[in-house]
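In response to the reviewer comment on reproducibility (Comment 2.3), we provide here a single inverse folding case reported in full, input and output, so that an independent group could reproduce the run without further information from us. The structure tokens appear first.
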């Protein structure tokens, strides 16, 4: 960082460092690095809220690091409801919001989240895995359990075809949770 000539360069180096920390699940270090990135970017651009992949990773890290579910949900819903964020960002934030809402039993929030985001799941830029995850998670708790199981099966097939092995674990975990609740007997054990 000392050889960087400006804040933009320092922020770029810190972003790369944050990605490594996130991959290593070093949540505290990751959150500290994100705070430094945001401080540098705020200084250079004047913007206070940025909807990007780093923000989504931070929401996920905060969910793992802290157990203040209400604060995590409130912050995540800012992304879900932001008209400034693109459809892909909002869908990915909604997936996190559904998971947190499940933890706190905020079923009404899950319904609001679904009504807000369901029209966006087929928008340009929204990935197939994100669309399937969103529909799977919502329907497992609040909707059609058979649809949820079908989404889980499709998501597993997509993950098998398109994700490197080391990126499949979160998908497998989400799908096995869904299949335990919504799938056929012994279907969960076939996933693992």
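Designed residues, in position order:
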């Amino acid at each position: 960082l000392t050889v960087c000539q400006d804040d933009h360069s320092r922020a770029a180096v810190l972003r790369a460092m944050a990605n490594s920390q996130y991959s290593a699940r070093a949540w505290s270090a990751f959150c500290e690095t994100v705070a430094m990135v945001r401080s540098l970017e705020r200084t250079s651009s004047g913007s206070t809220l940025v909807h990007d992949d780093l923000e989504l990773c931070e929401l996920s890290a905060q969910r793992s690091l802290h157990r203040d579910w209400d604060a995590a949900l409130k912050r995540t819903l800012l992304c879900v409801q932001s008209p400034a964020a693109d459809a892909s960002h909002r869908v990915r934030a909604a997936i996190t919001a559904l998971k947190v809402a499940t933890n706190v039993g905020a079923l009404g929030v899950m319904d609001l989240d679904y009504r807000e985001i369901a029209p966006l799941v087929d928008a340009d830029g929204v990935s197939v895995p994100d669309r399937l995850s969103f529909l799977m998670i919502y329907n497992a708790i609040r909707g059609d359990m058979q649809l949820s199981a079908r989404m889980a099966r499709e998501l597993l097939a997509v993950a098998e075809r398109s994700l490197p092995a080391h990126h499949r674990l979160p998908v497998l975990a989400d799908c096995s949770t869904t299949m335990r609740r919504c799938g056929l007997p012994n279907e969960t054990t076939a996933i693992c």
